[in-house]
Specification:
The complex is a heterodimer.
Chain A (H helix, E strand, L loop, with lengths): L4 H9 L6 E4 L3 H8 L6 E3 L7 H11 L5 E6 H6 L2 H9 L4 E7 L2 E2 L5 E2 L8 H7 L4 E5 L4 H8 L5 E6 L14 H13 L11
Parallel strand pairs in A: 1-2, 1-3, 3-4, 4-8, 7-8
Antiparallel strand pairs in A: 5-6
Helix pairs in contact in A: 1-2
Chain B lengths: L4 H11 L2 E6 L6 H9 L4 E4 L4 H12 L3 E7 H4 L6 H7 L3 E6 L12 H13 L3 E5 L2 H18 L2 E6 L1 H4 L4 H5 L2
Parallel strand pairs in B: 1-2, 1-3, 3-4, 4-6, 5-6
Helix pairs in contact in B: 1-2, 1-7
Classes of the chains: A alpha/beta, B alpha/beta.
């Protein structure tokens, strides 16, 4: 019995407290929204390949907060270099979770490289991630990575290649940015640097 | 004596509170990169490709920190699609670009992207300032920093090959 992506993401975000979340475009953005939209989530609608790098920027800027990137295998494959860049920076508060259905889900379910045996956890491990695992059943190790373990951590979660109803987050980029900064930084998000 | 534009730009970045510097190396940026690496208040982040810098800068801004990106003109071509996110989210952005493919270029493969760098940036909504003399680099950076972080602008400062002055492979190898 294969894991189902919405169950995985819901379990990951259960009782998320002050976790900061970035989701790659497409299915993973819908998945985090199905689990419950939050101002401290940044669902992407474009910039394919950049989810992990946004996570890195956020993790460096907010070293006391845990940062989780949830993205798809196609999105991760487009920016594999980010794993090397993260490996060099070694942010202890960053976890990248790839929801790996081995398909490009938004474009007709074409097979991605992971369907042909490309091993993303092995790439992350070779890029000096502290922990890099492939998950096919048990989710508890995943929560350990996201909420407790010193990172950078990586997990590829193998899931069924199912088409699910869309659950769309807000799509206005300025709104997504502003609500995130306000929720994280408070009133100082809205004032000019010299007014602070 | 030539003004030390790299040190002047570094001082501008410090004054503006820039804490993250993403870069893909270029010979023209060598000294500025070294100054940023040596600055304990800055995180210098080497990138495998320039577009990673856009994600880095966006993420750092979401977290409340300012980022500046350093790259060569050829790398600007790698940014095109992800600059869409900068536009649609109005992320502040400052890219400092050292130019290739201009006067004194020895490698013809650098010419096509060098000659279209400003147009590519402008087409994707990034305002361009061109520094043709060493003493104009820091003032352009000063203005661009204000526009980026106080007016949520997307800004690029292009540093002419004339300022950098690299003429041959041999001179570059000896740098």
């Amino acid at each position: 019995m294969k894991l189902r992506r919405r169950d995985v993401v819901k379990e990951l975000l259960r009782d998320r407290k002050d976790l900061l979340v970035v989701a790659g475009l497409g299915s993973t953005a819908w998945d985090i929204t199905a689990a419950g939209d939050s101002p401290l989530s940044f669902p992407m609608w474009g910039a394919m390949g950049q989810a992990a790098m946004i996570g890195l920027g956020l993790a460096l800027a907010q070293p006391k907060r845990r940062v989780l990137v949830i993205t798809g295998d196609g999105e991760m494959l487009m920016g594999l270099g980010a794993l090397a860049t993260i490996g060099v920076q070694q942010p202890p508060n960053l976890t990248v979770v790839v929801i790996d259905n081995e398909r490009y889900g938004e474009t007709g379910m074409q097979r991605t490289h992971t369907a042909h045996g490309v091993d993303l956890a092995a790439v992350a491990s070779a890029c000096k991630f502290k922990r890099a695992i492939t998950v096919t059943a048990e989710l508890e190790p995943l929560r350990e990575l996201v909420y407790r373990a010193p990172g950078p951590s990586f997990a590829a979660v193998k899931v069924a290649d199912e088409k699910l109803p869309l659950v769309l987050p807000p799509h206005d980029g300025v709104l997504l940015k502003v609500r995130f900064r306000r929720a994280l930084l408070g009133e100082s998000a809205d004032v000019l640097p010299e007014e602070r | 004596m030539q003004p030390d534009w790299s040190a002047e730009v570094h001082r501008e970045l410090v004054a503006a509170g820039v804490r993250v510097v993403g870069y893909v190396p270029d010979a023209g940026h060598k000294r500025l990169i070294e100054l940023c690496q040596a600055d304990t208040n800055m995180r210098a982040v080497p990138l495998t490709t320039e577009e990673e810098g856009i994600g880095l800068a966006a993420g750092a801004w979401l977290g409340g920190e300012k980022t500046v990106l350093l790259m060569q003109s050829s790398g600007v071509g790698n940014l095109i699609n992800v600059l869409g996110m900068v536009q649609v989210c109005r992320f502040p952005l400052l890219i400092i670009v050292t130019m290739r493919g201009e006067q004194g270029e020895f490698n013809p493969w650098q010419v096509p992207m060098g000659q279209t760098t400003a147009r590519v940036l402008e087409t994707m909504g990034v305002a361009v300032r061109q520094a043709g003399e060493p003493q104009t680099v820091a003032p352009h950076v000063h203005t661009a920093l204000r526009l980026a972080f106080e007016a949520h602008g997307a800004e690029a400062v292009l540093i002419s090959q004339q300022v950098i002055g690299i003429k041959s492979f041999q001179e570059q190898a000896n740098q």
